[in-house]
Amino acid sequence: MRLDGKVVLVTGASSGIGEAVADRLAGQGARVLVHGRDPVRVRRVADRLSATALTVDLREQGAVAELADQALAAHGSVDAIIHSAGVGWSGRLDQMPPDTLRTLLRVDLEAPVELTRLLLPEMLRRGTGHLCFVSSIAARTGVAGEAVYAAAKAGLDGFAESLRYEVSRAGVEVSVVVPGAVDTPFFERRGRAYGRRRPRQQPADVVAAAVVRCLEEGRPEAFVPTWLRVAGVVRVVSPAGFRRLSDRFGEQVPPRPGGGSGDSRDPG
Known about the structure:
The protein is of the alpha/beta class and about 270 residues long. Helix content is about 50%, strand content about 15%. The chain has helices at about 15-25, 40-50, 65-75, 100-125, 135-140, 145-165, 185-190, 205-215, 230-235, 240-250; strands at about 5-10, 30-35, 50-55, 80-85, 130-135, 170-180, 180-185, 200-205, 220-225. The strands form 2 sheets. Strands 3-2-1-4-5-6-9 form a 7-stranded parallel β-sheet, with helices on both faces. It has a two-stranded parallel ribbon with strand order 7-8.
């Protein structure tokens, strides 16, 4: 897809990966729809990029339909969607507050599925479009202390792969970007700092570059960094060996007093 002049909706674009994606898209001449839930941050990014600000809180009932309506009203159509909005939480499952569990599944899985359902028909009618889902290595390998987050991202993976089979002959492309640790407010907001030396945290702009390559070249999948693909392969080829390595080198998650919640990029 040639990005110059294309209308691209980026969810969760007021910070982190989403903001970095919006920056790159604007630099390529795309007409960017900057989505987020904080009106001040959304307007700041949109004004800086001469883009359109869409302020919607995806946690609220009816919010996804409102976002779809706003996106179509802005330019009449949407050529591509970057599903970057997300929330995270770290801790033992038995300590996860019920409201946090529902919010995480709502924003990380239900919202992108619903937004795709609402905007896909117009893409199919025109015979062109691109859907890009920002997933996580947690979806491919599992991560201690992030069982629900990993499940939501794995669900998004399965949705994207299945949808690709449905729309591939209709001119609509589907991509999944699988980042590892990224240097954004994710870890601060999820309630537990990143405690590993490896893999090193990647700059958000590196993930944004992978997203843009997927759009421009029609790539179905990208890992950031690229070697993370090996972890998923090892898990499939030798699950027992992978689990032994995870038991030995994986993070241990201590109980978190009082529970708590946090958002990964921008929950919208």
